[in-house]
Amino acid sequence: MQRRFSSEFKLESALLVLEHNYSIAEAARVMNVSKSAMGKWVNQLRDERQGLSPKATPITPEQLEIRELKKKCNALK
């Protein structure tokens, strides 16, 4: 059975690599997830921070709300 992880868990995990200088392997071990999952979350967060379109849903609900509000603002201009 495949485990499911919350957006908050994915974000916290990815931040270990991007902001706390853990390697992907170290962060995966600490968070008890696979290295491939950790790498995917890190790449997704890195891409989102660079303004690239995510391949999956945004990491947090707040990011999704911000995107929707920006779309509405641009439509009003």
Description:
- The protein has helices spanning 7-20, 24-31, 35-49, 61-76.
- With 77 residues, it is mostly helical.
- Belongs to the transposase 8 family.
- InterPro entries: Homeodomain-like_sf, Transposase_8.
- This is Transposase.
CATH topology group:
Arc Repressor Mutant, subunit A
- From the spread of the alpha carbons, the general shape counts as elongated
The helix content, as a percent range, equals 55-70%
List how many beta strands DSSP finds.
Answer: 0
Provide the CATH architecture. Orthogonal Bundle
The radius of gyration is: 14 Å
Roughly what fraction of the amino acids lie in strands?
under 5%
Mean pLDDT level: 87
Number of domains as seen in the coordinates: 1
Poorly predicted ranges (pLDDT <50, ≥5 residues)?
none
Order of helices and strands: HHHH
Secondary-structure-based class equals: mainly alpha
Write the layout of secondary structure elements.
Blueprint (H helix, E strand, L loop, with lengths): L6 H14 L3 H8 L3 H15 L11 H16 L1
Helix pairs in contact: 1-2, 1-3, 2-3
